[in-house]
Here is the input.
Amino acid sequence: MKLLKKEDLLNFDAGTALTIGVFDGVHSGHQEIIRNTVEEAKAKGLDSLLLTFSSHPLATLYPGKKPPLLASLEHRLKLIESLGIDYCYVQEFSREFARTEPVDFIKKWLMKNFHPEFICVGGNFHFGRGKKGDTVFLKKVCSEMGIGVKIVKPVEVEGARVSSTFIRGLIESGRVKESERCLGRKYSIVGTVVKGKGVGKKIGFPTANIDPHNEAMPPIGVYLTRVIYDGNTFDSVTNVGSEVPEGWAFDRIVEAHILDFNENILGKNIEIIFFDKLREELKFDKTEDLSARIRDDVEKANRFFAKERLK
Here is the structure.
């Protein structure tokens, strides 16, 4: 996938099959839209192009109503690339951009920059000033311009419509295993490893404390997880804890004990993949009690992942 920059659009003249959206989490509903776009592009001899935004529109228009993100922009782009899109363009969502009238968004902005011959979006797609543009308006204007349009039906899991809002609710209520069916993958948090208090290291169980890039996090507790670092995957036990450092941006801290691992990864980015909740977070008055509990957690994790490898 080629990530287009603003200056690239000056010389970009290929006919495209285009899809548009925030695609937060790139869940199974988004994947269906992207797959349809890629398939139509191949069938029509076009390049597939995905237009997304650097941040959620609500972060600009109504910051207090902005939902916690399921995935950072970097993570979103990685997931999008895995679905076979040829080109991607990231638009900054500014107040000025938000004032674009729906008809101008199509005729003056999309046509000028991306040359769509086909547009594929979900049924709840809205665009333009005040979200006045919808799929009915899109089909009407595109029909006049000879542009094909496909509206992809929502994906449902056990009778529930898959959406970023629905998935956030599952994750934030601790139902990470259930969220997997809606995401089309296991939920994960990407973050940068930062310096912690060193408590785990002192008792023989060092942890990688991360500054999360995404914002939707499971509730406080201990989880069975895997860590991806430098292209390699490691079994781990992760604590989503309540004792946050002063000035921390989140109300929880995420720290992973990576099994059979002794590299210094301070300042590196890692991905923590959540499998299931192991137990609630507990408070310990004695260091030896904490050490014994973590040792028990590690033993349970080893048994769990041994079974996973047999699947």
User: Anything to note?
Assistant: The chain is about 35% helix and 25% strand. The chain has two domains: 2-161, 187-310. Residues 2-161 form a domain with the Rossmann fold fold (CATH 3.40.50.620).
